[in-house]
Amino acid sequence: MTAGAGAAAVRVTSRCAGCGSCLLTCPTHAIRPDGGQLLVRADLCTGCVECIDVCPVDAIEETTASARAETTAGGAR
Fold first, then answer.
1. In which band, very low, low, confident or very high, does the pLDDT at 36 lie, cut at 50, 70 and 90?
2. Would residue 77 count as lying in a domain?
């Protein structure tokens, strides 16, 4: 699965414990620290979901295709 140009295929939720496993696992370095939280860069996320597999607290969720389309169309996320 490949993410659209406007929204990432995954998102980091508030359950994030800050362990950094996803940062080390992401092959495209799409997950970046930003002001005390982790953000997924849509332009780098390929949707491989390796980050979901390694997260020990299940803090990363796959976004739905409809949510990605809504974000791409200008919807708030």
1. confident
2. no
